[in-house]
């Protein structure tokens, strides 16, 4: 067995020669990749690269697939403390659970929650995640600190609500000042990328929605918001604006290539055309639809229309392989069965929607999402010496249907080893979990969270 830690502690340029290298044209045998200074530098046959780069260290990986890391197009890192509080709860849990919980967290709890969530992301094969913005009181710096310490590539949203929905509601000019400072703070950063967000359209005035979207476009960053996720939100928008949320964003000029719309589960054919014509991207969150949503985003139709989309977790379950499986399964259950579509886009669609397409949807297409020269070396070593991949007839489909996070031997961002066999190599995750076990219960108890249902454990306990 290869000593992976030793193999990647050599420093300097590396040539990885795996059993398969996942490229744009699928899993390729007999290919190697040169990594130099945290970037994929060259792809070719192993012997050719070795001759051309005599100073590089060759790492033979005969039992592994080297593939791009997954990209979570929509998550909430500061919700990890209460992630199992929402099971079985009706929709719009953000009003009763997430806003009260996040708003009650102090700086240290924001840091701990974010670090736990970042660890879960990396364990699930996500080398990058798009955080929709913490609703805590101005502690975004601790969230970023947690991401840096774990090595997770982060697109971090600065919430710019001017009508509530967060712990703080600054004056309009102060919101703009904070947004400008946020954009400037991470300009040119190799690991953290800024984004601007308004939680939901009704949390921002028309002026603020348009202004923040325009600021994002001018800075070439992503503008995030949750749209057309729940029926009650659609109806509130109709009452307030005589337009559905997505229609209203189009009406005020807040859509565009910079916009990333989370969910879009309740969209009409007309609204799909609005997405297409404006170049707006969608975060398709299949597990969130199953666990707490009202509908399934029509991802196959989005693909057919050329609408950009990628897969997101919405903070539900950080396992990139299971996310792909859920994405395909929901399209099959929601649309494929009724139409006799047995492929539902094909295994390659879901693999790309979790990597290359996701990077494009969140504005990172020139940074990560593929194994290609010039892009950041964000990648996974997947162990193929597993029963699930034996025998292998169609590795692309097998990754979607049989992949799981326990098959990931190592996780890298910017060419640096971050996790080995599911655990960090340069910090103590077990100490983090010990501290969280002590502090999470009182933190949750102090938050004004309202659950509709008791926990399943309490129901079972009542039977005795």
Automatic annotation (TrEMBL):
Keyword Hydrolase: yes
Molecular function as annotated in GO: hydrolase activity, acting on carbon-nitrogen (but not peptide) bonds
InterPro entries given in the database record: Amidohydro-rel (IPR006680), Metal-dep_hydrolase_composite (IPR011059), Metal_Hydrolase (IPR032466), MTA/SAH_deaminase (IPR050287)
Gene3D superfamilies hit by this protein: Metal-dependent hydrolases (3.20.20.140), Urease, subunit C, domain 1 (2.30.40.10)
Domain of life: Bacteria
PANTHER family from the UniProt entry: AMIDOHYDROLASE-RELATED DOMAIN-CONTAINING PROTEIN, AMINOHYDROLASE SSNA-RELATED
UniProt family annotation: Belongs to the metallo-dependent hydrolases superfamily. ATZ/TRZ family.
Protein name as it appears in the record: Amidohydrolase family protein
Taxonomic lineage of the native organism: Bacteria, Pseudomonadati, Pseudomonadota, Gammaproteobacteria, Oceanospirillales
